[in-house]
Amino acid sequence: MTFKEITEIIKLVNKSNLTEFKIKNGDFSLNIRTKKYGKMIASQNQQKVPQQQLIPIANPMTTAVQQPVMAASPTLTPPAESASSGNKDAADNKEGKEAKAGLLEIKSPMVGTFYRSPEPGKAAYVNVGDYVEKGDTVCIVEAMKLFNEIESEVSGRIVDVVAEDASPVEYDQVMYLVDPKG
Question: What CA–CA distance (Å, rounded) separates 79 from 86?
Fold first, then answer.
């Protein structure tokens, strides 16, 4: 799908009364949820959804569309070892690196705001110790007022939640560490 087609879809969804829109074409999938979705849920539950703070991003449309597949990608590479001046720091880094060796990372496929739960006050999609299957929703990343469900592309047990709830995440930033041996 081209950038122009994606922007046209976003414009049409914003103008319509749709609260959620999903399209899948081969390996490409696009999930769009509007703020109307949160208001609809709130009115059904007779409670107000708190206003979420938007963080300005330099050219967010280009950044979000460069990675159209809305799923996290696993990697087997451990975090890079930081430069250290002392032997103790080097030993600590080596131990940390060995401890994280073999863990898979679920990374953000876009720039946005990371949310662990579907809406404020609800339980998190996954917690440390939970087992996730490939295709399970693990979080939401809000980008340009669109709530994108992020699905795991790995199976295993969540060993760490690296990103903080309701905080900004960058493209390719690690959100979860997963032990594939479970």
Answer: 19
Q: Quote the DSSP letter at residue 136.
A: -
Structural domains in the chain, sorted by start: 1-76+102-182 (2.40.50.100)
Q: What pLDDT is attached to residue 94? A: 45
Q: Rounded to whole angstroms, how far apart are CA atoms 177 and 101? A: 11
Q: What stretch of H or E contains 94?
A: helix 87-100
CA-CA distance, 171 to 18, in Å (whole number)? 27
Q: pLDDT per residue over 70-81, tens digit each?
A: 444 444 444 444
Burial class (CB in 10 A: 0-12, 13-18, 19+), 155: middle
73-84 residues labelled b (16+ CB within 10 A) or e (exposed): ebeeebeeeeee
Q: Over 5-69, what HEC string results? A: HHHHHHHHHHHCCCCEEEEEECCEEEEEECHHHHHHHHHHHCCCCCCCCCCCCCCHHHHHHCCCC
Phi, psi of 166, deg, nearest 5: 65, 25
